Amino acid sequence: MQSLAISLQALVAASIFFVWVVRYDNIIEEFKHYRYPDWLRDLVGVLKMTFSLLLLIGIEHGRFAVAGSIGIAVLMAAAVVTHIRVKNPLPKILPSLTLLVFSTAIAWINLRMLKV
Known about the structure:
There is one protein chain. By secondary structure, the protein is mostly helical. The chain has one domain (2-114). The protein is built from 5 helices and no strands. The protein has helices at 2-22, 24-33, 38-57, 62-85, 90-114. Helix 1 packs across helix 2 (24-33). The longest helix has 25 residues, at 90-114. It is globular.
């Protein structure tokens, strides 16, 4: 189970880094399309990068993985709701939904390993 958690933590952190750094122009356009303010986009970006860093730190210290994965799960749930609200097709919803499921699994696995 631990190796699954580590793999998921690395995958989620890398995915968020890729989208919010490499493809940031796409994020700017999406937030404009959703009619969300720039400050919200920036806040979400800071939170996602922070939670991703917590996932990576959590490879050695499980409590950080729990905090990071719960934070990402909350943000991904909000992303899924946004995609549904603007009536995006399923292929546009799947990345957020997948990261939501992975983040939930990370939290669950790490909580079990910590026996909290």
